[in-house]
């Protein structure tokens, strides 16, 4: 499972309308790449203290930084800014709240080939919007062979060997009113390192390949409500040939799988003649919703059995 990261340029950043950005100086350097999804406010780095300084992140100056810079010695300020810019590869400096950079900051940035931008948004609003945009663009991505379907509001990633029936199962789920996100190739992105978002590569969007039928357009066949561009992945279902051993009959043990460092619940379903896999996945999704609310049916049933056995044992002792 190959993993890759993305990057964006400062030039692309300037095109994002909701960030209200404009170029102040350094037009020659807007080709610089942004590779880190984190944003940094320089703070103590303006005093020359560079321990734990995020030297590869976009640097945002707010009203606090501006007030400090206005009171600082101009020569010392320029030296400190040049020093922090030389620590790594700062893509750009952004002034929030429509602030104009002081001459010392502009000179330091231009000498380090770093463009300066500014936004009309205040620091908190800009950082919130910018962090969301960066996370969408730069979070780690991988491609997984499988099918992603939205079942009762839960993103279910169906995996298994080629030809085992993943697409046929997904097709039955779509007929039952559920939603297709991706077939064959699922692009998975880890957002905020806490949850997974699955989508379909643009070329394959809305299409399915069903053995015997060929390529079908799900949106044309079942309507626009049958497809979705992306969805959080909350459950993995692995279709396997009939298992001789190792199957948890009660479902007490909650297995997980790790994708891009994020754990999600995983369920194994043996494929045997006569089993309605679509119904089983439908129930598994509903059951997973109960588990996320703290209701674990298998454990509650097991507890009731153990309590009954204890009561019976106590009666026999008496």
Cα Rg:
27 Å
DSSP summary: helix tally: 9
For the largest beta sheet, what order do the strands appear in spatially? 9-10-15-12-11
- Major pleated sheet: 5 strands, mixed, barrel
Helix content: 25-40%
Distance between the terminal alpha carbons, to the nearest Å?
Answer: 60 Å
Structural class: alpha/beta
Q: What is the typical, i.e. mean, pLDDT?
A: 92
Overall number of strands: 17
Overall outline: elongated
Tell me the fraction of residues in β-strands, as a range.
25-35%
The unreliable regions are none
- H/E series, N to C? EEHEEEEHHEHEHEEHEEEEHEEEHH
Describe the 3D structure:
The protein is α/β, with parallel strands linked by helices and about 325 residues long. It is about 30% helix and about 30% strand. The strands form four sheets. A five-stranded mixed β-barrel has the order 9-10-15-12-11. Strands 3-8-7-6-5 form a five-stranded mixed beta sheet. It has a two-stranded antiparallel sheet with strand order 2-4. Strand 7, helix 4 (about 105-110) and strand 8 (about 115-120) form a beta-alpha-beta unit. Helix 3 packs parallel to helix 4 and helix 6 crosses helix 8 (about 275-290). The longest helix has 21 residues, at about 295-315. The radius of gyration is 27 Å and the shape is elongated.
What's the layout of helices and strands?
Elements: E1 3-4, E2 8-9, H1 10-13, E3 21-25, E4 33-34, E5 39-40, E6 58-61, H2 63-71, H3 74-85, E7 93-95, H4 103-111, E8 116-119, H5 123-138, E9 141-151, E10 154-160, H6 166-175, E11 179-191, E12 195-199, E13 207-210, E14 214-217, H7 218-222, E15 230-240, E16 255-259, E17 262-270, H8 277-292, H9 297-317
Parallel strand pairs: 5-6, 6-7, 7-8, 10-15, 15-17
Antiparallel strand pairs: 1-9, 2-4, 3-8, 9-10, 9-11, 11-12, 12-15, 13-14, 16-17
């Amino acid at each position: 499972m190959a993993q890759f990261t993305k990057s964006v340029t400062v030039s692309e950043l300037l095109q994002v309308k909701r960030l209200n950005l404009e170029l102040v100086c350094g037009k020659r350097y807007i080709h610089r790449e942004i590779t880190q999804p984190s944003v940094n406010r320089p703070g103590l780095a303006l005093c020359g203290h560079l321990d734990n300084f995020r030297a590869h992140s976009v640097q945002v100056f707010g009203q606090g930084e501006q007030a400090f810079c206005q009171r600082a010695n101009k020569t010392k300020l320029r030296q400190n800014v040049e020093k922090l810019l030389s620590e790594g590869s700062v893509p750009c400096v952004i002034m929030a709240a429509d602030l104009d950079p002081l001459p010392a900051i502009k000179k330091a940035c231009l000498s380090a080939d770093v463009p300066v931008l500014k936004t009309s948004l205040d620091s908190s609003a800009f950082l919130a919007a910018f962090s969301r945009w960066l996370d969408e663009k730069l979070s780690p991505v991988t491609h997984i062979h499988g099918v992603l379907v939205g079942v009762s509001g839960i993103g279910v990633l169906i995996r298994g060997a080629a030809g085992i029936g993943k697409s046929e199962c997904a097709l039955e789920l779509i007929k039952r009113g559920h939603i297709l996100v991706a077939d064959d190739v699922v692009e998975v992105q880890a957002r905020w390192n806490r949850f997974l978002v699955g989508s379909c590569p643009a070329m394959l969007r809305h299409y399915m390949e069903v053995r015997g039928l060929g390529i079908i357009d799900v949106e044309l066949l079942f309507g626009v409500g049958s497809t979705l561009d992306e969805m959080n992945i909350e459950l993995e279902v692995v279709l396997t040939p009939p298992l001789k051993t190792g199957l948890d009959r009660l479902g007490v043990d909650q297995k997980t799988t790790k994708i891009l460092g994020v754990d999600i619940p995983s369920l194994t379903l043996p494929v045997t003649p006569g089993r309605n896999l679509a119904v089983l996945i439908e129930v598994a999704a509903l059951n997973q919703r109960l588990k996320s609310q703290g209701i674990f049916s298998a454990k509650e049933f097991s507890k009731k059995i153990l309590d009954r056995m204890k009561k019976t044992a106590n009666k026999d002792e008496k």
